[in-house]
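Reviewer 2 asked us to include a model.

Predict the structure of this chain.
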Amino acid sequence: MNALSNVSRQILQRLSDAAVIDLQGKDIYPRLDNVLLGKTMYTMKESNTVFTDMNFCLILLENAYGFSYFQEEIDYSLSKYVNCSIYELLEDSIPQYLRVALVDGLYCQINADKFAVANVFKGDLRQKATQRARLLFTDIPHGAKLVIFGVATEIIEEAMRTSCQYLTLDLEPQKIGLMLMGSEVMDARNYDLEEVIAWADYILATGMLFVSHSADEIINLANMHGTKIVLYMESGSNFGPQLTGMGVDAVLSERFPFYDFFGDTQYLYTRKVDNQNAVA
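Predicted model (structure tokens):
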């Protein structure tokens, strides 16, 4: 994907600034209590590959959590940030994945009432993945031209079921060239991002856009070309509802533990037309 300009953190910065203003003066202690870092080794439906491209960052506050996936190396020196104020950390130079997790932790508290009445996905991993994919296509019409950023077998199945014209793009070498449901995962670096977005009616992407510094560019280009955006978020999912006031058309926000964990998975589905929480 194209490199971002100096506005690479614009949306995340706006969210961060708004959260700090909202929470200051409230009975919330912003100390970072715990940072959990690790690597995932997973597979996908219709694939025998063991993927090792994803790491995770889970941060804990006294009454909240924040989460992000990331693909860079794990930095265990992040222990130096434990016991620090989140407000102070957000003013510092920190890894982007930690920044996303910290902002996610703030919105875990701001959006607590919304998630208190969240719906749930039920069943095993694959059943919940299918439910998630079906929900994501609620507002994507049959036959739409669709760009999928990031690979998920059930999403590709749903794109096929709804007769969408779709292009699946990824940056991870393990996934590029992978054949899923007869469709090849293409290298995003080989495509002009603006041209692809101008072609599409819809973009379907993960919350990792905020970790990879590509959210601003994709959202800005989509708004410029009238392309609608649907996000499904584990990374940064707690601030998902606010994004429908910032140029995103619909967001599926999952609560930790996510769909690929055992048990029910809480989620919110927020549409732009229903959102009253735009961030200035």
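The first helix runs from residue 10 to 23. Confidence is low (pLDDT under 50) at residues 1-8, 276-280. We have added this to the supplementary material.
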